[in-house]
Write a structure and sequence with these properties.
The chain has 2 domains: 47-123; 126-203. The protein has 2 helices and 8 strands. The protein has helices spanning 2-50, 54-125, and strands at residues 128-133, 137-141, 145-153, 157-162, 165-169, 174-179, 182-191, 195-203.
């Protein structure tokens, strides 16, 4: 009975060892299968890579690089253009300010001119009568027009200048001139041996 029990124990132990051995062998087998699967994937990837057309790939890469460089150059040109536009805008603003100042100054100068013109016209409208001998002159419109006598032909004619413009005439004649945009006349009143009497007047 004891011998039978011992034999049974040995048999059970042997079965356990066999089962363990089978289990261990199964695990090792699974590891090998995984390695084979991984190797197949690597081979497939290598085959796919080998199917590339290398010249076409290089060409595509060059085209992409050219597009990137063109884009970068375009951006750089745009930045330069934006900078130039900003400079021109600043220059334009400066010119605008100068133009405003010049416009104000011109307006003031024009007002002064109109006041002076009005004053001169007012003065010029008043007849001025002078008696002059040869070689004499008179500032009949102050700062603007002088009347000068050069030669007196006794009881005949008188020759001279008015505001730099020559004149010559007999007693009783009226001579017309333009002075600073005004219509002026020189009236020869009398001519004697030694002198002449002249009268000037202007209108606006």
């Amino acid at each position: 009975m004891a011998a039978g029990g011992a034999g049974s124990d040995v048999a059970c132990w042997g079965a356990l060892v066999l089962a363990a051995a089978v289990a261990a062998g199964g695990a090792a087998w699974k590891i090998q299968l995984d390695k084979v699967s991984e190797r197949d994937k690597q081979i497939a990837a290598m085959r796919e890579a080998s199917s590339w057309t290398l010249p076409e790939t290089i060409k595509n890469l060059k085209n992409a690089s050219a597009e990137i460089n063109a884009s970068l150059k375009s951006r750089a040109d745009q930045q330069l253009l934006e900078g130039r536009v900003a400079e021109l805008q600043q220059e334009n603003n400066t010119l605008d300010e100068k133009l405003k100042v010049a416009t104000v100054e011109l307006s003031e100068a024009n007002k002064k001119y109109l006041r002076l013109k009005s004053k001169l016209q007012g003065a010029a409208k008043q007849p001025v009568t002078v008696e002059l001998s040869e070689g004499q002159s008179e500032d009949v419109i102050p700062g603007l027009a002088a009347l000068a006598v050069e030669i007196i032909y006794p009881r005949s004619r008188v020759k001279g200048t008015f505001s730099g413009q020559p004149f010559e005439g007999r007693a009783g004649e009226r001579l017309s001139y333009k002075v600073a945009g005004m219509n002026c006349t020189v009236f020869i009143k009398t001519i004697s041996r030694d002198n002449t009497i002249l009268s000037t007047a202007c209108d606006g």
